[in-house]
Specification:
Low-confidence stretches: 190-220, 224-238
Number of helices: 7
Radius of gyration: 17 Å
Number of strands: 14
Distance between the termini: 58 Å
Strand content: 15-25%
Structural class: alpha/beta
Largest sheet: 8 strands, mixed
Strand order of the largest sheet: 4-3-2-5-6-13-11-8
Shape: globular
Order of helices and strands: HEHEHEHEEHEEHHEEEEEEE
Protein backbone atom coordinates (compact mmCIF):
# COMPACT_ATOMS: atom_id res chain seq x y z
CA UNK A 1 0.00 0.00 0.00
CA UNK A 2 1.40 3.40 -0.98
CA UNK A 3 2.12 6.19 1.50
CA UNK A 4 -0.60 8.25 -0.18
CA UNK A 5 -3.13 5.44 0.27
CA UNK A 6 -2.22 4.97 3.96
CA UNK A 7 -2.50 8.71 4.53
CA UNK A 8 -5.86 8.79 2.74
CA UNK A 9 -7.26 5.97 4.88
CA UNK A 10 -6.04 7.66 8.06
CA UNK A 11 -7.46 11.03 7.05
CA UNK A 12 -10.79 9.45 6.14
CA UNK A 13 -11.04 7.81 9.57
CA UNK A 14 -10.14 11.08 11.27
CA UNK A 15 -12.85 12.93 9.38
CA UNK A 16 -15.51 10.27 9.89
CA UNK A 17 -14.70 9.85 13.60
CA UNK A 18 -13.97 13.54 14.24
CA UNK A 19 -10.46 12.81 15.53
CA UNK A 20 -8.22 15.67 16.68
CA UNK A 21 -5.52 14.24 18.94
CA UNK A 22 -3.48 16.14 21.51
CA UNK A 23 0.12 16.06 20.28
CA UNK A 24 1.94 18.81 22.19
CA UNK A 25 3.84 17.01 24.97
CA UNK A 26 4.30 20.20 27.01
CA UNK A 27 0.55 20.83 27.03
CA UNK A 28 -0.18 17.19 27.87
CA UNK A 29 2.29 17.26 30.78
CA UNK A 30 0.72 20.43 32.18
CA UNK A 31 -2.77 18.94 31.96
CA UNK A 32 -1.76 15.66 33.60
CA UNK A 33 0.15 17.40 36.39
CA UNK A 34 -2.82 19.67 37.02
CA UNK A 35 -5.15 16.69 37.48
CA UNK A 36 -3.35 15.44 40.61
CA UNK A 37 -4.39 11.85 39.95
CA UNK A 38 -4.18 9.62 43.02
CA UNK A 39 -2.43 6.24 43.08
CA UNK A 40 -4.78 3.51 41.81
CA UNK A 41 -7.54 6.04 41.04
CA UNK A 42 -9.83 4.79 38.29
CA UNK A 43 -9.93 7.09 35.24
CA UNK A 44 -12.03 6.70 32.08
CA UNK A 45 -10.54 8.17 28.89
CA UNK A 46 -13.30 8.61 26.31
CA UNK A 47 -11.91 8.57 22.77
CA UNK A 48 -8.41 7.58 23.87
CA UNK A 49 -6.90 7.55 20.38
CA UNK A 50 -3.14 7.01 20.50
CA UNK A 51 -3.10 7.22 24.30
CA UNK A 52 -1.87 10.80 24.58
CA UNK A 53 -3.69 11.08 27.93
CA UNK A 54 -4.06 7.38 28.76
CA UNK A 55 -0.34 6.54 28.98
CA UNK A 56 0.71 9.56 31.11
CA UNK A 57 -2.24 8.94 33.44
CA UNK A 58 -1.23 5.31 33.90
CA UNK A 59 2.38 6.39 34.41
CA UNK A 60 1.15 8.56 37.28
CA UNK A 61 -0.37 5.50 38.94
CA UNK A 62 -3.96 5.66 37.70
CA UNK A 63 -5.93 2.66 36.47
CA UNK A 64 -7.29 3.69 33.07
CA UNK A 65 -10.18 2.51 30.97
CA UNK A 66 -9.19 3.67 27.49
CA UNK A 67 -12.30 3.70 25.30
CA UNK A 68 -11.56 3.81 21.57
CA UNK A 69 -13.89 3.03 18.68
CA UNK A 70 -11.27 3.07 15.91
CA UNK A 71 -9.79 -0.47 15.77
CA UNK A 72 -6.50 0.80 14.32
CA UNK A 73 -5.86 3.19 17.21
CA UNK A 74 -7.14 0.66 19.74
CA UNK A 75 -4.60 -1.90 18.54
CA UNK A 76 -1.82 0.69 18.62
CA UNK A 77 -2.77 1.68 22.14
CA UNK A 78 -2.63 -1.95 23.28
CA UNK A 79 0.86 -2.23 21.80
CA UNK A 80 1.93 1.05 23.36
CA UNK A 81 0.72 -0.06 26.78
CA UNK A 82 2.69 -3.30 26.44
CA UNK A 83 5.83 -1.47 25.32
CA UNK A 84 5.55 0.90 28.28
CA UNK A 85 4.90 -2.03 30.65
CA UNK A 86 1.64 -0.40 31.67
CA UNK A 87 -0.70 -3.11 30.42
CA UNK A 88 -1.63 -3.93 34.03
CA UNK A 89 -2.94 -0.36 34.44
CA UNK A 90 -4.50 0.24 31.03
CA UNK A 91 -7.64 -1.54 29.88
CA UNK A 92 -8.37 -0.80 26.22
CA UNK A 93 -12.09 -1.01 25.45
CA UNK A 94 -12.95 -1.19 21.76
CA UNK A 95 -16.36 0.46 21.82
CA UNK A 96 -18.44 3.39 20.74
CA UNK A 97 -18.29 5.53 23.88
CA UNK A 98 -22.02 6.21 23.62
CA UNK A 99 -22.61 2.52 24.40
CA UNK A 100 -20.13 2.33 27.24
CA UNK A 101 -21.24 0.97 30.60
CA UNK A 102 -19.44 3.06 33.17
CA UNK A 103 -17.67 1.40 36.11
CA UNK A 104 -19.74 0.79 39.21
CA UNK A 105 -16.98 2.03 41.47
CA UNK A 106 -16.19 5.77 41.72
CA UNK A 107 -14.16 7.04 38.78
CA UNK A 108 -12.97 10.18 37.01
CA UNK A 109 -13.35 11.06 33.37
CA UNK A 110 -10.35 12.57 31.58
CA UNK A 111 -10.77 12.92 27.84
CA UNK A 112 -10.24 14.78 24.61
CA UNK A 113 -13.37 13.30 23.02
CA UNK A 114 -14.52 13.53 19.38
CA UNK A 115 -16.01 16.98 18.82
CA UNK A 116 -19.07 15.63 17.04
CA UNK A 117 -20.05 13.65 20.15
CA UNK A 118 -19.95 16.54 22.62
CA UNK A 119 -23.69 16.59 23.25
CA UNK A 120 -23.88 12.80 23.61
CA UNK A 121 -21.01 12.79 26.10
CA UNK A 122 -22.44 15.57 28.23
CA UNK A 123 -25.81 13.86 28.36
CA UNK A 124 -24.19 10.51 29.13
CA UNK A 125 -22.40 11.91 32.18
CA UNK A 126 -24.67 14.74 33.33
CA UNK A 127 -28.22 13.59 32.73
CA UNK A 128 -28.39 10.97 35.50
CA UNK A 129 -25.98 11.79 38.36
CA UNK A 130 -27.55 9.18 40.62
CA UNK A 131 -26.67 6.41 38.15
CA UNK A 132 -23.18 7.54 37.11
CA UNK A 133 -20.56 7.35 39.85
CA UNK A 134 -18.18 9.88 38.30
CA UNK A 135 -16.44 11.99 40.93
CA UNK A 136 -14.87 14.43 38.49
CA UNK A 137 -14.31 14.95 34.79
CA UNK A 138 -11.89 16.91 32.61
CA UNK A 139 -12.98 17.18 28.99
CA UNK A 140 -11.53 19.01 26.02
CA UNK A 141 -14.44 20.81 24.38
CA UNK A 142 -15.15 23.52 21.85
CA UNK A 143 -14.90 26.98 23.35
CA UNK A 144 -18.42 27.95 22.33
CA UNK A 145 -19.79 24.92 24.21
CA UNK A 146 -17.88 25.83 27.35
CA UNK A 147 -18.96 29.45 27.27
CA UNK A 148 -22.58 28.41 26.78
CA UNK A 149 -22.60 26.03 29.73
CA UNK A 150 -20.47 28.13 32.08
CA UNK A 151 -22.65 31.24 31.75
CA UNK A 152 -24.19 32.45 35.00
CA UNK A 153 -27.08 32.38 35.39
CA UNK A 154 -27.64 29.42 33.03
CA UNK A 155 -28.95 30.61 29.69
CA UNK A 156 -30.15 27.35 28.14
CA UNK A 157 -32.82 24.89 29.24
CA UNK A 158 -30.34 22.02 29.20
CA UNK A 159 -27.79 23.80 31.38
CA UNK A 160 -30.57 24.85 33.74
CA UNK A 161 -31.65 21.22 34.09
CA UNK A 162 -28.08 20.26 35.04
CA UNK A 163 -27.35 23.20 37.34
CA UNK A 164 -28.90 21.72 40.54
CA UNK A 165 -26.20 19.02 40.38
CA UNK A 166 -23.33 20.45 38.37
CA UNK A 167 -21.40 23.68 38.13
CA UNK A 168 -19.47 24.73 35.05
CA UNK A 169 -16.47 27.02 34.73
CA UNK A 170 -13.88 27.86 32.09
CA UNK A 171 -10.16 27.33 32.53
CA UNK A 172 -6.76 27.60 30.85
CA UNK A 173 -6.52 27.94 27.11
CA UNK A 174 -5.09 25.22 24.90
CA UNK A 175 -3.74 26.38 21.51
CA UNK A 176 -5.05 24.81 18.32
CA UNK A 177 -1.44 24.04 17.42
CA UNK A 178 -1.41 21.46 20.23
CA UNK A 179 -3.62 19.12 18.15
CA UNK A 180 -3.11 16.87 15.14
CA UNK A 181 -4.80 17.50 12.84
CA UNK A 182 -5.29 21.11 13.85
CA UNK A 183 -8.99 21.68 14.66
CA UNK A 184 -10.97 24.24 12.73
CA UNK A 185 -13.29 24.97 15.65
CA UNK A 186 -12.38 27.17 18.59
CA UNK A 187 -12.26 25.40 21.93
CA UNK A 188 -12.09 26.02 25.64
CA UNK A 189 -12.27 24.18 28.93
CA UNK A 190 -14.79 24.29 31.70
CA UNK A 191 -15.44 22.72 35.06
CA UNK A 192 -18.39 21.51 37.00
CA UNK A 193 -18.88 20.23 40.51
CA UNK A 194 -21.60 18.22 42.20
CA UNK A 195 -22.80 17.67 45.75
CA UNK A 196 -21.46 14.71 47.70
CA UNK A 197 -23.34 11.43 47.68
CA UNK A 198 -25.89 10.98 50.42
CA UNK A 199 -27.41 14.46 50.12
CA UNK A 200 -31.18 14.10 50.34
CA UNK A 201 -33.81 16.39 48.95
CA UNK A 202 -34.17 19.44 51.18
CA UNK A 203 -30.60 19.26 52.49
CA UNK A 204 -28.03 21.93 51.73
CA UNK A 205 -25.14 20.19 49.97
CA UNK A 206 -21.52 21.30 50.21
CA UNK A 207 -20.86 22.66 46.75
CA UNK A 208 -17.33 22.82 45.41
CA UNK A 209 -15.81 24.43 42.37
CA UNK A 210 -12.94 22.79 40.56
CA UNK A 211 -10.25 24.90 38.89
CA UNK A 212 -10.40 23.97 35.23
CA UNK A 213 -8.26 24.50 32.17
CA UNK A 214 -9.62 26.53 29.28
CA UNK A 215 -8.72 26.79 25.61
CA UNK A 216 -9.48 29.64 23.27
CA UNK A 217 -8.53 28.72 19.74
CA UNK A 218 -9.00 24.99 19.81
CA UNK A 219 -10.28 22.13 21.96
CA UNK A 220 -10.12 22.64 25.66
CA UNK A 221 -10.74 20.90 28.90
CA UNK A 222 -13.97 20.52 30.83
CA UNK A 223 -14.17 19.35 34.43
CA UNK A 224 -16.74 18.35 36.94
CA UNK A 225 -16.66 16.57 40.27
CA UNK A 226 -18.96 14.95 42.75
CA UNK A 227 -17.17 15.39 46.05
CA UNK A 228 -17.43 17.15 49.40
CA UNK A 229 -15.41 20.37 49.39
CA UNK A 230 -14.10 19.74 52.89
CA UNK A 231 -12.51 16.48 51.74
CA UNK A 232 -10.79 17.84 48.66
CA UNK A 233 -7.92 20.30 49.25
CA UNK A 234 -7.90 21.49 45.65
CA UNK A 235 -11.54 22.57 45.85
CA UNK A 236 -13.06 25.49 47.65
CA UNK A 237 -16.52 26.17 49.02
CA UNK A 238 -18.85 28.65 47.38
Amino acid sequence: MSERKRRSDRDQRRRSLSQNFLADQAVISELIDDLKVAEDELVVDLGAGSGALTVPLASKGARVWAVERDPVWADRLVARALDAKLDDRIRVIRSDLRRLRFPREPFRVVANPPFNLTTDILKLILDNPSAVSATRADLVLQREVVLKHSAQPPNTLKTSSWSPWWEFSAGRRIPASAFRPRPAATRSSAGRSAPPRGVRSGQSPNWARIPATNCSSCPAEYRFARSCAAAAPEMYRI
